[in-house]
Write a structure and sequence with these properties.
The protein is of the alpha/beta class. It has a domain of 176 residues: Rossmann fold, CATH 3.40.50. α3 crosses α8. The longest helix is centred in the middle third of the chain and has 20 residues. Helices cover 40% and strands 13% of the residues. β3 and β4 form a beta hairpin. Strands 3-4-2-5-6 form a 5-stranded mixed β-sheet, sandwiched between helices.
């Protein structure tokens, strides 16, 4: 009798987990992303409007969970290092910049990092950015026209889709059905950016960076037409652990993990960043 009760309880537990676990099927293809209506750049970039001639700007964009924050930090590091290698450094408007090496480490990778000593800026935007999708093309135009940056490069962060989705549902969008639909919209938008010949794009691969390390970061310098560091120049470490984040998702999730994910999708959801069934706005 006790054995039969244990079997029945186990069946009931499996059934409960199955019913509570969100159904991750192929997301609908007719969702329309909610476009961000305002981008507050002036507070971070105001000095480029007055005293400093802007040179290089990098917009790092990627689906939530794609490692775009790591890419943004690597970009900030690369721009600062290139400035210090320039023969015209420090700039005449601020001799104290000679002591500013490592200022990029004070940034957490979110939002905007303006390095006035290096005359550069890194803008990090996830897809979605909170509950809307940024208009990257408009950001490129604004940086060129309003802030007069000489060159603007878009860095598209890419990572294994399954690991990206699991990271997204763990840290950003708890509802896995909504997360899958948002990710599909993000991937479609990123494909459009890469296919747009008017937008200079560098694709940053999370897996390639883990494997190649600093050698891969130098490809970013090449894309920006900046000099590579000398062999004798020490490379600062990133303030983020560069371990293989995909490893945690290589194994099957245990029942309690499935139950936790289901519970979080019910008690801690986030509003979707799309409108179901509407006409597409972003290319």
């Amino acid at each position: 009798m006790d054995k039969e009760k244990c079997v029945l309880r186990l069946v009931a537990l499996v059934l409960c987990i199955t019913l509570l676990t969100p159904d991750i099927r192929a997301p609908p293809s007719n969702d329309t992303p909610v476009t961000c209506t305002e981008e507050h750049l002036s507070e971070a970039l105001w000095r480029f409007e007055s005293t400093i001639k802007a040179q290089k700007a990098i917009i790092v964009v990627g689906a939530e969970g794609s490692g775009s924050k790591l890419a943004a930090l690597a970009a900030a590091q690369a721009l600062e290092g290139a400035a210090f290698r320039s023969p015209s450094f420090p700039p005449p408007y601020d001799p104290s910049c000679a002591e500013s090496r490592g200022v990029w480490k004070t940034w957490d990778g979110h939002g905007i990092h303006a390095n006035f000593c290096a005359a550069s800026a890194v803008i990090h935007r996830s897809l979605p950015h909170t509950n809307c999708f940024p208009d990257v093309r408009n950001l490129v135009r604004e940086l060129k026209d309003d802030y007069k940056f000489e060159e603007v490069l878009v860095v598209v962060a890419a990572r294994d889709p399954s690991s990206t989705l699991r990271t997204k549902t763990r840290h950003h969008q708890r509802n896995s059905v909504v997360a899958a639909r948002e990710q599909r919209l993000a991937f479609n938008y990123l494909r459009g950016l890469v296919n747009d010949p008017s937008i200079p794009v560098f694709v940053w691969s999370y897996e390639a960076f883990l494997m190649l390390g600093d050698a891969y970061s130098k490809q970013l310098l090449d894309a920006l037409k900046l000099p590579r560091p000398l062999a004798s120049e020490p490379t600062p470490e990133l303030p983020l652990p560069t371990y293989d984040g995909n490893r945690a998702y290589a194994r099957r999730r245990r029942p309690w993990q499935l139950l936790r994910a289901a519970a979080l999708s019910l008690v801690a959801p986030r509003a979707p960043a799309f409108v179901e069934g509407a006409r597409a706005e972003l290319r």
